[in-house]
Design goal:
The chain has 338 residues and is of the alpha/beta class. The chain is built from 11 helices and 12 strands. The strands form 2 sheets. It has a 7-stranded mixed sheet with strand order 11-10-6-9-8-7-12. A 5-stranded parallel sheet has the order 2-1-3-4-5, with helices on both faces. It starts with 31 loop residues before the first strand and ends with a helix.
Length: 338
């Protein structure tokens, strides 16, 4: 319960970790004060969970203390959700601020939850410069190149950060990774809704949920991607190192659902269901307290590369596209803007 925790202001001294080797001089005082950038997606639901006076465990160790609305005028869904998010924050008594700089002054840690991945890099810059530990909601950025730049800046300033879909931490998905009846993972067929948004690579907008499930189960090491698209469906086939195959099926018709069939050395099983936001929020709070990201940068970057490779495959009539070629394009894009 949250009521037994002191509300007194305390000076917290800790060493911000380097991404690859986090080192903390003890955990900060709780409850942590979190700021949210972007109220046009998960901000309302997550704040209701975190600011619930009956919250327990890790969820009682952080509150949302301020929000910066953000929003993308060229995405109608963003504007609709932003209005709802702003009103929800007013009703919950969470202050709205007029700038990211103002937000940073009021909070200990920051979550970038803007539904649009394109502004994430520019939103992250002042947060990282201020040394605030940072979580970025999916998609981490509007492109692989932007995500690489965010991680570069974070490492340069010794600021821990990570990004993930809530599907990664669903208990059923995590359980299959050590299921003795499945054994070593040989393959996975993951699926999720896959609505499209014209300002993003196709899978970035919603298909990322199923792709995150795929990589949670398969791990990194995908070498190439080929894709088939019809009006209502997607199929992306990834070939992993050693010849393992993982697929993502995206749907725009039928039931709005998530899942995966997992194939192992000892058997197969079903997994990958959505099980609420709480499992991810628990990991986010742990991360903010310890500075230890639960998802390493390479995993997140390979997920984004997989999705960009799928777009390139579509443009090439379904031909296989290597993950390395996508990383090389991103490196060139970042070199050009230095």
């Amino acid at each position: 319960m949250r009521f037994h925790r002191t509300c007194a202001s305390m000076l917290v001294l800790f060493v911000l970790p380097i991404l690859t080797a986090p080192v903390h001089a003890g955990e900060p005082a709780v409850p942590l004060k979190a700021g949210i950038i972007g109220l046009d997606a998960h901000a309302r639901n997550w704040t209701q969970i975190l600011n619930n006076p009956e919250a327990t465990g890790e969820l009682a160790d952080m509150i949302v203390a301020a929000g910066y609305p953000g929003g993308s005028p060229d995405i109608p869904q963003s504007m609709e959700l932003l209005e709802q998010g702003n009103e929800a924050f007013r009703q919950m008594g969470v202050p709205l601020v007029e700038s990211i700089d103002e937000l940073i002054q009021k909070v200990d840690v920051v979550m970038i939850l803007s539904i649009d991945g394109r502004p994430h890099l520019e939103q992250a810059r002042p947060v990282i410069a201020a040394g605030k530990t940072l979580y970025l909601d999916k998609p981490m950025a509007g492109s692989l190149a932007d995500a690489i730049e965010i991680f570069r800046l974070a490492e340069e300033h010794h600021v821990p950060c990570f990004s993930s879909s809530s599907l990664r931490f669903a208990p059923g998905t995590q359980a299959v990774l050590s299921d003795p009846n499945v054994g070593d993972i040989l393959g996975c067929d993951a699926f999720s809704p896959c609505g499209l948004e014209p300002h993003h690579p196709d899978f970035f907008w919603y298909g990322i949920h199923g792709v995150e499930t795929l990589f949670t189960i398969m791990g990194t090491g995908c070498k190439s991607v080929s894709r088939t698209q019809t009006e209502h469906f997607e199929m992306a086939v990834g070939v992993w190192e050693g010849g393992r195959i993982g697929t993502f099926r995206g749907t725009r018709a039928g039931l709005h659902t998530y899942g995966a069939t997992v194939f192992g050395t000892k058997g197969s099983t079903q997994s990958g269901k959505f099980e609420g936001y709480e499992p991810l929020l628990v990991e986010i709070v742990k991360f903010f307290k310890t500075g230890k990201p639960p998802v390493d940068p390479q995993t997140t970057l390979e997920i984004l590369a997989f999705m960009e490779a799928a777009d390139q495959s579509k443009l090439q009539g379904g031909a296989p596209v290597t993950i390395e070629s996508i990383f090389e394009k991103a490196r060139q894009a970042n070199a050009a803007r230095q």
